[in-house]
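Quick one, tokens below. Sequence please?
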């Protein structure tokens, strides 16, 4: 009887510490929401590049439609980040948690507009296909390249996670999470050109920037890039990132010219 009790005690202790080990291991698998390059803890050989799109501080005012917004060009060449998409890429939208001020039915529309611009910049070397919608709003290496609104770290407008193979530069998974804590809107530029709602972030403006990371472009922060789509700060009532500058287009073209 004593031997059985001892064996039960040993088994219980083993199960307890094994369980704690699993919890610790699970905690270590989290990818930080901080700009940088990380090893994917669950997939050896895969790197994860995290981009945090930061808010540009501005005085808060009441929201109203503002038109005649500037959309200047820029020839400043955007740097490559070190990866590229394959010739065909499927993306998945989470329309279930799109802010009502943006509209769930509008997400496919402006996502397609943005992706078409980037595809054209690559010389149509990348063709995007809309896959089935998803309810996922967290990044993961799961075969789904999602665009969703969810929770991110406080100062981020959006966070993009690019998983790629360093030796080849091949992208294997990409996720973009738009921060639901901010005030968002979308102004259809075909019916309201150069217009946006003040005191809100235009969803197409910010998403177009994030999709530039999908294509393989880096963030730029110096003043010479302030009118590029890939300028690393976003502002309220901004729509100039919707339109790719010459420097954005040339940056993408340089990446895909050899494919």
């Amino acid at each position: 009887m004593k031997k059985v009790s001892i064996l039960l005690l040993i088994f219980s202790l083993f199960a307890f510490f094994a369980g704690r080990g699993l919890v610790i291991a699970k905690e270590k698998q989290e990818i930080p929401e901080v700009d940088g390059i990380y090893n994917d803890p669950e997939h050896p050989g895969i790197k994860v590049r995290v981009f945090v799109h930061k808010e540009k501080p501005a005085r808060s005012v009441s929201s109203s439609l503002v038109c005649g917004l500037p959309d200047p060009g820029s020839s400043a060449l955007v740097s490559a980040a070190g990866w590229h998409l394959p010739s065909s890429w499927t993306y998945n939208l989470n329309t279930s948690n799109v802010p009502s001020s943006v509209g769930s039915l509008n997400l496919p529309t402006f996502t397609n507009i943005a992706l078409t611009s980037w595809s054209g910049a690559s010389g149509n070397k990348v063709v995007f296909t809309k896959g089935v919608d998803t309810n996922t709003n967290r990044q993961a290496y799961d075969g789904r390249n999602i665009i969703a609104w969810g929770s991110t770290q406080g100062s981020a407008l959006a966070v993009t996670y690019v998983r790629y193979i360093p030796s080849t530069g091949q992208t294997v998974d990409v996720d973009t999470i738009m921060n639901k804590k901010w005030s968002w809107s979308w102004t259809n530029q075909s019916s309201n050109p150069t217009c946006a709602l003040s005191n809100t972030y235009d969803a197409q403006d910010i998403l177009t920037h994030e999709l530039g990371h999908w294509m393989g472009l880096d963030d730029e922060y110096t003043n010479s890039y302030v009118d590029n789509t890939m300028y690393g700060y976003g502002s309220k009532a901004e729509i100039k990132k919707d339109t790719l500058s010459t420097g954005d287009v040339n940056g993408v073209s340089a990446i895909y010219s050899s494919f």
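The radius of gyration is 21 Å. The mean pLDDT is 89.
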